[in-house]
Structure prediction request, 86 residues.
Amino acid sequence: MFKLLTAFTFLIVLSIVWCSQWKRPPVCCDPCSKKYWDCKTKCETDDPENMACEPNCLLALDKCAKAHCNNKLCPRPRGKYWEIDE
Prediction:
């Protein structure tokens, strides 16, 4: 019985974590996400071999998020979600 309860609890926690990954970030992250995608697109077109490009864009995202979202970090954008109507 203990193993069944443990397995059930694990599955519940796993499903909550999995679902929370897909929630939309706060609105204050939108300008920072746009800047991140502009940076990433520019890096991929200008210098695709540059390995420091992605970390630099992520660092800029963190700095922007701290400035716009009261020192809270924004998650790394998965896609250009601001173009999708909700």
Notes: Residues 2-83 form one domain. Residues 2-20 form the longest helix (19 residues).
